[in-house]
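Session log. Operator J.P. requested a structure for one protein chain; no other inputs attached. Running the standard single-chain path with C-alpha cell output.
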Amino acid sequence: MGEIVSDDLADQLVSTCRTAVGDELRSVTYFDENEEEQLYLRGDLEADADLVGFADNERLGFHSQALYEETELGPYQFTMRVFDHGYLTRVIVGDHGAFVTTDAMEMDRFRELASAMGSVLEGE
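Structure written below.
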C-alpha cells in the first residue's frame, strides 16, 4: 500500500468495508483520475482481474457525477453494478473514489457500505 494512497486512508477504507460487509468483501480498490491501487483482495481469490480496465470504467463516474449534480434526483451517492457472482459498488467524492467487490448479499447492506466509504473518502 501507499503508492497513490496514504497507508492511513488505505487502512481506513479496508477496515470500514470489512466492518460493513464482513466476509462477503472480495476486494477494495482506490482510484483517482490517473491511477488505481488495489488495497485488499480476499485470500481465496486470484489476482488476475483487469484492475486497470475496471478502474478506467469506474473513472467515467467523475464525468457522471458532474452531470447529475444539478438534477431533481438529488446528490449522487453511489453506483452499483450487479453480476452473476457478486456486486461492484463505487463511491466517488471529489477527485478520488473507491470501488468494492462483494459476494451476493442483502441490498440494504450496500447503502451502509456506500455511506461508510463516502465518510472515509470525505475525510481526505
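Operator note: The CA atoms of residues 89 and 104 lie 12 Å apart.
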